[in-house]
Prior knowledge:
The chain has about 350 residues and is of the alpha+beta class.
Amino acid sequence: MRTAWRRVLASRALHSLLPLWLCCPPVLSWSRPVCAQASAKTVVMVVAPSALPLAQRLRQEIESLGLAVKWLPSERAQLPSLEQEAVSAGAVASIRIAPMGGSDVDMTIFDRATGKTVSWKLVAASTAEPAAGELIATRSVELLRASLLQMAARPEPAPAPPAPEAPAPAAAAKAPDSAENLSLSLGPALLYSTDLRSGLHVLSTVTWMPFARAGVSASLLTPVLPQRLVRPEGTVELYGSFYRLGAVLEPTDRKAPVSLRLTVAAGLGRLQLRGQPSAEYQGATESRWVACPSLGVAARFALASNLRLFVDGSGSIAFPKTVIRLAGREATDWGRPMLSAAVGLELSAAVGEP
């Protein structure tokens, strides 16, 4: 009977060593990846006091594989399952050895690599048959070796694909200052010069802002009601049309509820003077061109996203000197200075944006 047990033990030992030998040949086996991996692993053993002889034999077999053994007496075990014991210790496997009554021994192995639990009942070592303990230890080591081989053959997890990059902002989503770059202003204006009554004009302005705070403008002052000079000798009516081309600077944010716009412009004015004399005098009509550079400021009040109310004021000086004469005498000088005030609406839009 003892001879039969020894034959079984030899067969089991040879069978368990064969897979390990195939991966880690003798002499140089410990330099191979599988064995190097095994040398860094831990096995938890939960052992009942009555099974200490068998557990000691199994421990020797496990340590011969280069594994570290964490010994845990069963009465001190705090975790309810072998799986939790293996996870808590960071082990590759956990083994519980406990008597079942009589001469039977319960052997349970949890393989963390596969997540499987294997349990069987064997006859414990005895005086009559000491080879039973060897057989149990050999079977347990065989299962651990198979688990290690399976871990070595398992492919490495593929790296997670990189997260897709966020799409670039649309080209149309630009700063508010660069969106509405063209505006049209229109409104009534009063024109004043020394000694003359104010005349009513219409101010129309086109402004282009290719930069955030700078641009150009072109404006036209068109007469509706003339300026008047009233004297005993008669009345002089002055109709003036003024053309301005200027540079624009915005010191404030264009999208602010209230913004300012400064303008420095070169201008030309076409003057038409019509005399309406008293009974004893004779009337005359005269036309001339004058240069009238100007400096202006406009306050803009937002009413909607592209609609604003503007209030504009500007001052200029006319060249050459324009003298108004009545009955052969100099009555006054025109255009030194000339002031204008306008109020109206400004409509803006984006032009030339992709």
